[in-house]
Amino acid sequence: MTHAYVVRFVGGPLDGRVDSFDRPQEEPKTTLTHVHLHEGPKIVHHYDLRYAVEYGCEYHLRVVEAEG
């Protein structure tokens, strides 16, 4: 079975992850939040949506500029 719609993750802990769906989501979320809860402090990463015409969409790790 071939999946027509692919969601890829770029950067951060989800880098390289690929999710496949039979059809696109009607309204994909513009931002996804990934939270690490592994033996230590909670670490939060935000991924922002970018469309990829060829196959679906990509969520790219949000880069936060250092203050200073």
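The above is record 1. Record 2 follows with the same two-line structure.
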Amino acid sequence: MERKQHGTGEVVFNAINYTVFILYTLICVFPFYYLFINTISSNELTGLGLITFYPKGIHLSNYIQVLKLKGLPRAALVSLARTVIGTAATVFASAFLGYLFTKKEMWGRKFWYRFVVITMYFNAGILPWFITMMNLGLTNNFLAYILPYIVQPFYIILIKTYVESIPQSLQESAQLDGAGYFTIFFRIVFPLITPILATVAVFSAVNQWNSFTDTLFLMTDSKYYTLQFVLYRYLNEATALASIIKSSQGPVNMNLQNMQTPTSVRMTVSMIVVTPILLVYPYFQRYFVKGIMIGAVKG
């Protein structure tokens, strides 16, 4: 079997491509690497900005002490709950609405579709939103993390486009056999749109996990605080927190290299918050190209 010969131009082009993408990957990865090595390095050196490319004076006391901070475990559970429940609700609603909007027999289909899409471009602002949420009883209420995110126009558009790429003959044959809309959706359409659902799930999960403004405006009860909101507060109070942690360690256990500083608290809390989504994101990445591109170009 003859090996395909590559011309000089193609070799140069591939070399440039690989170089550019490797550099781009390093640029994207380095901030997380920098954050991590500073959380496990000597806090004295970190505070002086001397940790750049590799860790020095490695220790794990930052994580041990920060994980003991009041409210962090409960905030993690709230964030996990809102991410899982909110993502599931968003994916299901987007899938079903995207499927319905492909049905020409749907009453007022064009009107309702445009009505949903137009909300992408216009909103009333923070104050009307807050008043509406308050009147609906969604202050200090976990449902405030779920209900407003169920209908997402962008996700509906993605799924609608994807469903339209599926041969109509599959649905028509099921209809001839007496299948209703729900049967067709759950048994035929839903399994076929798994790639775009995975894409939507990742987008929604990242959005839910990173959100903290709704907590800032709607929640005064600490039991509803999310991890991102706790991070927001800790970042603003890092100096005070560092003092509290140092005092809780006691004079016997004080070590200049491991002594908590505002910088170490900020970096450690940031790393704890960002790690879960970093672990989940690569797993679903394989679905992105297929999920986004199928149906985007029609012949």
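Residues 295-299 have pLDDT under 50 and may be disordered.
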